[in-house]
Amino acid sequence: MQRAELVSYLDDYLRIHDFKDYGPQGLQIEGRGEVRKIVGTVDAQMPCVEAALSRGADLLLVHHGVFWGAAPRLVGNFATLVRAYLVAGLNLYAAHLALDAHPVVGNNAELARRLGLTVEGMFAPVNGAPIGVIAVAPDGVKFDYLVDRFEQNVGPVRLVQAYGPRISHKIGILSGAGAREIPAAAALGCDTFLTGETSHAEFYAAQNAGINVIYGGHYTTETVGVQALGQHLQEKFDLEFEFVDLPTGL
Predict the structure, then answer these.
(1) In this predicted model, what pLDDT tens digit does every residue of 147-169 receive, in sequence order?
(2) Per residue in 195-229, pLDDT tens?
(3) CB neighbours (10 Å) of residue 130?
């Protein structure tokens, strides 16, 4: 498949240009013109490049790209990283907020699906666009079961704060560093919240709000979108896709 065709499809499917992100998204580094194999990772740093190249990838599909904020100078370690892509002819495609927010393959929609929940709305706007989801278990689900289901279908749980009811009905989901949205989720009637990580400053937010929180890790909660998007591309275009797990422990 030609890179230009694939990039055009991804840009449209993810609505990549509808999100005001923290840096340029989409095709961040242009490599060879034909794409047969895609490797997916959460990040785009040197271990990810090495993993992609060792598996014969033509394109690395990631959640966290290499360009954020103002354009950096191509010097030092950053120059070494970019050079590795260019010398190998490896394309880099990054989807950050657009992949968080996507209703089918997004991190938050996919987390809800893996937990057996039904998405009923969105919340947590970033730069004007909501990226988190509000999911429901109409008949209720034991909070302990949600924790177990996360570990079975996503990965290890980092921290559990059980300050809400034993039975969960309405769950706010925001992957990554989403603890700041605990009060907003509680205000929307959520009794449970799922996110990646917290900080000391936000540690007591769950207790203050009286809701349950599952912290699945920033990295782990953002593995699912890349996997779901890669599977979608593999099925639609008959491309080879492989996800490489390179956990940071955070």
Answers:
(1) 999 999 999 999 999 999 999 99
(2) 999 999 899 999 999 999 999 999 999 999 999 99
(3) 16
Number of domains in the chain: 2
pLDDT value, residue 71:
82
Partners of 142 in beta bridges = 167
- The separation between CA 212 and the C-alpha centre of its own chain, rounded to angstroms, equals 22
| 78: helix, strand or coil | helix
Q: Where are the beta strands (DSSP E) in 95-191?
A: 118-126, 129-142, 159-162, 167-174
Q: 19: number of CA atoms within 13 Å, CB side?
A: 26
What gap in Å lies between CA 240 and CA 103, rounded to an integer?
23
CATH number at residue 174: 3.40.1390.30
Q: What is the pTM of this model?
A: 0.96
pLDDT of residue 41: 98
H-helix or E-strand spanning residue 35: none
Residue 207's domain spans which residues? 100-218
Please state, as a whole number, how many other Cβ atoms lie within 10 Å of the Cβ of residue 136.
18
Instruction: Identify whether residues 213 and 143 lie together within a single domain.
Output: yes
Residue 171 and residue 115: Cα distance in Å, rounded?
A: 10
> What DSSP element (H or E) covers 92?
strand 91-94
**Same structural domain for residues 16 and 123?**
no
Mean pLDDT of 110-119: 98
Per-residue confidence at 70, pLDDT binned at 50, 70, 90?
Answer: confident
Tokens of 215: 């912290």
Under DSSP, the state recorded for 58 is: S
d(CA 182, CA 16): 27
Residue type, 60: L
**CA nearest neighbour of 39 among 8, 61, 21:** 61
